[in-house]
Amino acid sequence: MALLTYRDALNAALREEMGLDDRVFLMGEEVAEYDGAYKVSRGLLKEFGPHRVVDTPIAELGFAGIGVGAAMVGLRPVIEFMTWNFALLAIDQVVNSAAKMRYMSGGQVGCPIVFRGPGGAALQLAAQHSQSFESWYAHIPGLKVLTPGTPADAKGLLKSAIRDDDPVVFIEGEMLYNVKGEVPEGEHLVPIGKADIKRAGGDVTLVCHSKTVTVALKAADQLAAEGIDAEVVDLRTIRPMDTETVLNSVGKTHRCVVVEEGWAFAGVGAQVVDEIQRHAFDELDAPVLRVTGADVPMPYNKQLERAAKADPAKVVAAAKRVLYLA
Amino acid sequence: MAGTRARSRAKGAPHPAGPAASPEQCREYLRQMRLIRYFEEKAGEAYSLGKVGGFCHLYIGQEAVAVGSMAALRADDYITTSYRDHGHALARGLSARSVMAELYGKAAGCSRGKGGSMHLFDASLGFLGGHGIVGGHIPLTAGMAFAAKYRKTDQVAVCYFGEAAVNIGSFHETLNMAALWKLPAIFVVENNGYGMGTALARASSLLDLAHRAYSYEMAEEVVDGQDVFAVRSAMDRAVERARVESLPTLLEMRTYRYVGHSMSDAAHGTYRTKDEVEEFRQRDPIKLLEAHMLEAGMMDEAGLKAVDEMITAEVEDAIVFAEESPDPAPGELWTDVLAGGQ
């Protein structure tokens, strides 16, 4: 095991996969000479050269489409969006081109591409830079959506994404880049579509992904101090969703809170709750509750921003409600 | 690059003769153009009869563009088009059977009945799609050119789109990167004068669309798209530039569609007059080629009739094939979503 930051774990995944497969290249704004806006691509230009680490103009729609075209003829592009907020300019290529190509060509033309970059709110970046879009992409058949919450999962999932034959939307946690964690040495792959129990417990299930893994674990610590044993289920992959792991946990605890950074309406948690009510209705001892971002554009003011975000205290409160303790 | 800039001509003005084509080549141009024309007429009929669904955009009037330009390509080159793609597919060598079966939504269609009129594909021929979002396939084509350069092959990638697409962001973003990175891509604007019902002059501040390449220091040429020889020679130059020098080109093909934007649009009466359509029909690309061949003694009336009979039989056969082919199996709904199945 090595102690790595989430950022360096992603960097290691890129370096390893580019070393293993000449078809893999990295393209995006500031990925090469600047070493990455968030330094995820640090050192890659030096190691692989400008042929495989390609700086682009600020033209998300254009370079996303160039990546899709290269993938259609057999390369394995990794397209970095400086943030997923800017990727909205490219969503036509992700949704109308990448996700549809295999189907509308009758299976002839695949699109093995990874679109990656940071998502979610950081600190006081206000409305246009503080958004979670995983539910948007998870809505689309033909896409896979990955949201790692730890350095080990970041590395293992990115390596799996690059090797995958389908288009992958890979949303990193902007607030996680400096988080350190143990990462297995050597070849470390995390399977797409598998959730992970980050903490075992028998009293209540906390379903989370990306940055809210940290939120849920902190909440679980606080609950433990009050004698409540929470199980933390990290979805890791939003689509295809590992509902089996969620349902098994709910079958054990009979109570569930779903936590996410994004907005509640038509959010990831809505899908989780739908799966639970259809497949585990009789297991539930309380309605499933959700902790989400507030249903407003993100404010700038620090106090207001704090109020808008999902945090451990809100999760603790929700957990107590499903346990009828509050 | 100034040397590659041809002077623009008024639409319909005569073009200086292109390089001499052999009788065999002329005959092949004629066969393909007549095939496309008759195929499209029958596709329109089939649509009217409810046999073909969805949207259906016909290529009648523009045949010389696809036929003349595709003749300059190699079997391993890449091609994408917009949704007005039947003519390009046939010119690339997809069979009339596989294209008509796709229009009918049948399992034997070139996209197995899942794409339809707007999404014709044959990966074995490097024909990578009719695409349905205006301008959406322009960056894809640059990506294919990027891949060719990345692998150090000398393939070229060609993108066909209507003149309305030059106003969308993806066109500008892509042309900039194609020129910046010296990609072996050819962007073929088929300027038929109308984006759906909007005349070019009502949509573009610049009427000489090839001049848009100036913003990107890209080679460009204005071409008489009704003259198959002119199309071929301009495309030869662009292909050479891409294959040998790895440089992109913007080609503006001046052409005209005789039919409506799609089957729900009348040929004339709303945004253009009957007289205008008739005027352009005087420079019909097929008639121009036939006149040239007769005049040069390459073919006589009997020869023209023989070509007609051949392509008529081919299209009639395609219709019977499409009619009689089975629909995709119900389970096909769920296949091809992901690489390993749903």
Question: Would you summarize the structure shown here?
Answer:
Chain A has 326 residues and is of the alpha/beta class. Chain A contains twelve helices and 14 strands. Chain A folds into two domains: 2-183, Rossmann fold (3-Layer(aba) Sandwich); 196-322, Rossmann fold (3-Layer(aba) Sandwich), CATH 3.40.50.920.
Q: What does this 3D model show about the protein?
A:
The complex is a heterodimer of chains A (326) and B (342). With 326 residues, chain A is α/β, with parallel strands linked by helices. Chain A has 2 domains: 2-183, Rossmann fold (3-Layer(aba) Sandwich); 196-322, Rossmann fold, CATH 3.40.50.920. Chain A contains 12 helices and 14 strands. In chain A, the strands form 3 sheets. A 7-stranded mixed β-sheet of chain A has the order 3-2-4-5-7-6-12, with helices on both faces. A 5-stranded mixed β-sheet of chain A has the order 9-11-10-13-14, sandwiched between helices. In chain B, helix 1 packs antiparallel against helix 3, helix 1 packs across helix 11 and helix 5 runs parallel beside helix 6 (169-180). Chain B has a 6-stranded parallel β-sheet with strand order 2-1-3-4-8-7, with helices on both faces. A two-stranded antiparallel sheet of chain B has the order 5-6. Chain B has one domain (20-327): Thiamin diphosphate (ThDP)-binding fold, Pyr/PP domains (Rossmann fold, 3-Layer(aba) Sandwich), CATH 3.40.50. The termini of chain B are far apart. In chain B, a hairpin with a 2-residue loop joins strand 5 (194-195) and strand 6 (198-199). Classes of the chains: A alpha/beta (326), B alpha/beta (342). Chains A and B meet through helix 3, helix 4 and helix 5 of A and helix 5 and helix 6 of B.
